[in-house]
Amino acid sequence: MTALSMRGVHKSFRGRSALHDCTFEVGRGSVTALVGANGAGKSTLMSIAVGMLAADSGEVAVLGHARSRAGISPGLAYVAQHKPLYRSFTVADMLRFGEHANSHWDHDYARGLVADADVPEEARVKTLSPGQRTRVALALALGRRPEVLLLDEPLADLDPLARKAVARTLMADVAERGTAVLLSSHVLAEVDEMADRLLVLGHGRIRLSGALDDLLAEHYLLIGSGDPATVIGAGEVVETRPGGRTHLVRGPRAAAGGDWLTEAASLDDIVLAHLAAPEEVA
Ligand SMILES: Nc1ncnc2c1ncn2[C@@H]1O[C@H](COP(=O)(O)OP(=O)(O)OP(=O)(O)O)[C@@H](O)[C@H]1O
C-alpha cells in the first residue's frame, strides 16, 4: 500500500549535495512527519516528490507510477511552504479556480473547510493573515480529494486552536479516505500528535525512519557513570550527552543495575540524538 516512494535519490545544487541516497516509502492511510534542521533538504525532497524539481539520479514513484518528468501527478496535492495563491483573487475566486482546474474537485468540502476556518469568501487573498492563507491553501489542496498530500510546514503560521482544527481535518481525511500524508515540521510536539511515522533528514541524508511507536519502544536513556557497553547488550549508543553520564541507546532496554538508571526516551531525545550522531550510527 505504498503511495509514494523514493529509492537512491540524489540532488545537488551547483556541486553541493542537497539530498544523498534518499530511500523511503510513504504508505496509504498514514501521516509521515518529515523532520530536520533548516537546510536539511526537506523542501527539496518534497519538490522532487511533487515533480516540480528533477532528481539527479534515483527513482521516484507516486501511486505506482515512476516519475521521470516534471509535472504534478494526478492524485497528488501539494501545499508549498510559502502557500502560493493569487494575491488579487478573492477566496471565492480561488475556490472557483480550484473547481475549473481539477476534475475531482469537491466544492462543498473545500468551501466547508474555508467556512470552518472563519475566512470570508469575499476577502482578497492579499488581505488574509498568513494563518488564513494557510487554511485557504489547505482547502484548495484537500478539495482536490488527493490520494497523496504533501504539506511543507503546514502548521507553522497557525495558532494553537487552528493547529488542532487542521490536525483533526487531516486525520479524518486519512482515516476516512486512506490518504497518504507527508508533512514537514520543526515542532516535534505536533509530530507526536499527528503523525504515525517519522522520517528524519540530516544534511540531505535519511538519518532515521519508522513507525513512531516502534521508534519510541526501540530507544531509551541510560544514565550513570562508567562504560555503557557493559550494560547495553546488543543495543548501541546513538549519542552520549555532554558530561558523559546520559546516553541515548537503541536496542532492548537494559535492566538497570548498580549505578545505572534507565528512562523512556521522548521523541525529542530520539530525533536530536540521531541528528547529532555520526552518520554510520544512524
Ligand atoms: N534552488 C536552489 N538553488 C541552490 N541551492 C538550493 C536550492 N534549493 C535548495 N538549495 C539548497 O539545498 C539545501 C536544502 O534546502 P531545502 O530548502 O530543501 O532545506 P529545508 O530542509 O527545506 O530547510 P528549511 O527548514 O529552512 O525550510 C540548502 O543548502 C539550500 O541552500
TrEMBL record:
In terms of Gene3D superfamilies, this protein maps to: P-loop containing nucleotide triphosphate hydrolases (3.40.50.300)
Q: Locate the ABC transporter domain: which residues?
A: 4-228
State the UniProt keywords alphabetically: ATP-binding, Nucleotide-binding, Transport
Whether Transcription counts among this entry's keywords is: no
Q: Which GO terms describe its molecular function?
A: ATP binding; ATP hydrolysis activity
Q: Which Pfam families did the record assign? A: ABC_tran
Q: Which PANTHER family match?
A: ABC TRANSPORTER ATP-BINDING PROTEIN ALBC-RELATED (PTHR42939)
UniProt protein name: ABC transporter ATP-binding protein
The protein's organism comes out as Rhodococcus spelaei
